[in-house]
């Protein structure tokens, strides 16, 4: 076998090793995504509870403002009643005070109801917060395991990439480019062994004379159908 072809096969081995580690890393992604999704759902519920709580607090404050205004107005009516002289005017004012008392009582009832609602939402928000914390705590050991596998994979990946860079140094740059171009195509690898006289990737038959050349190592031949480099192992 040509030495060029040998080094190129070495490069392919390095690339296989890198791909295998990439796959290991990729295999962790669905599980991580699922864990993230679980937390995200609970955090969404928490955010909704917080939004409801702030809306309820807003309503409560609005009602308090209203009630305070009604009280001041009611107090003014009472003071006015003390110096009103005419009986007709006084009775009109008293009717007004009675009416306002009813309105005030209604608003106060509404305020109590709103405060109770706010309290219920607050409880829900606290529960939602608890659920987020519990979920995160439950996930922590598995996440730590995954992180340590990822760290270990990344360390191996770095080594494998350094090894590949070293192998690539010993390869003719034009051949390296060719190899790179083939890898951007459809075939998962750039080099395939001849298989019963056919390309090991697409199984297109290789003409006899080309097969002989490949066997003798006279040329670095590519498959005319799919473009991969074909070789015969020794
Ligand atoms: Zn082919």
In short:
This protein has four helices and three strands, in the order αααβαββ. It is mainly α and about 230 residues long. Strands 1-3-2 form a three-stranded mixed beta sheet.
The CATH class of the largest domain is identified as Mainly Alpha
How many structural domains in the coordinates? 2
Report strand order across the widest sheet: 1-3-2
CATH topology descriptor of the largest domain: Helix Hairpins
Low-pLDDT sequence parts: none
List the helices and strands and how they pair.
Elements: H1 3-83, H2 87-169, H3 173-183, E1 191-193, H4 208-216, E2 221-222, E3 229-231
Keywords:
Helix Hairpins; 234 residues; 4 helices; 3 strands; 79% helix; mainly alpha; 3-stranded mixed beta sheet; binds zinc ion
Can you give a write-up of this model?
By secondary structure, this protein is mainly α. It has helices at 3-83, 87-169, 173-183, 208-216; strands at 191-193, 221-222, 229-231. It folds into 2 domains: 12-169, Helix Hairpins (Orthogonal Bundle); 172-234, no CATH class. The chain contains 4 helices and 3 strands, in the order H-H-H-E-H-E-E. Strands 1-3-2 form a 3-stranded mixed β-sheet. Helix 1 packs antiparallel against helix 2 (87-169). The model has no long low-confidence stretch (mean pLDDT 95). The structure holds zinc ion.
